[in-house]
Amino acid sequence: MKNYDNVIIFDHPLIRHKIAILRDERTSMKEFRELVEEITTLMTYESLKEGVPTTEIEVKTPLETCTQTVVADNAIVIVPILRAGLGMVNGIHVLFPSARVGHIGMYRNEETLTPETYYCKLPQGIEDKLVLVVDPMLATGGSACDSIQLLKEKGCKQIKFMAIIGAPEGVSKVAEAHPDVDIYVSTLDRCLNEHGYILPGLGDAGDRLFGTK
Ligand code: PRP
Ligand code: URA
């Protein structure tokens, strides 16, 4: 895959370790859900190194008063792409408990592999927030591209996208369609199969999170 200025692929041993367990077909639904949350928390820590709105406050220590930088109130909105993106929300809430959540419902048409939007509910004032769009799987990139486009049409100006596993095809597609969006991917897999599944991947993330198969 080409190098893109707006793509950050994590190469962290701790994340790699957790992804290895996540991929394993023997991993239970409970463990899968917990791992998705843990990986998301680690990714969020790194992804928000830059671009988080901050504010200064006065703090009185036992010795003196000092000025400190803190994350601005109500600065972040999480937007999971349903269903599988829901599995990542708690992993961000651990760090930002007051982050509001918007939902975009999309499913891939199994024949054309193109996304179809069936739901969209976003918090008021989202256009002025840092929006974190989350989905564990970035396969053809269709769902990510359309979600980001939808958010831009609603006026969102600062958007970051986080996926746990990306396929080169999908990462390139989103990076080129949305050069102004930072794309964070924990690991880049080999390719897609003829059904649009990521190889080696982990199977269907939604089914594994919610036990639907
Ligand atoms: C999966 C996944 C992404 C999408 C990725 O969702 O969670 O949203 O596929 O594929 P793409 O990059 O080719 O668009 P799916 O459509 O299976 O819906 P689900 O989460 O409800 O299972
Ligand atoms: N969606 C998934 O859940 N898994 C894939 O491999 C591709 C899309």
What would you note in describing this structure?
This protein is of the alpha/beta class and 213 residues long. The chain has a single domain (7-210), classed as Rossmann fold, CATH 3.40.50.2020. It contains six helices and 13 strands. It has helices at residues 13-23, 29-47, 86-93, 142-153, 168-177, 205-210, and strands at residues 7-9, 54-60, 65-71, 76-82, 100-101, 103-108, 115-121, 130-134, 137-138, 158-166, 182-188, 191-192, 198-199.
What does this entry show, briefly?
This protein is α/β, with parallel strands linked by helices and 213 residues long.
Features:
213 residues, Rossmann fold, 9-stranded mixed β-sheet, two-stranded antiparallel sheet, 13 strands, binds 1-O-pyrophosphono-5-O-phosphono-alpha-D-ribofuranose, binds uracil
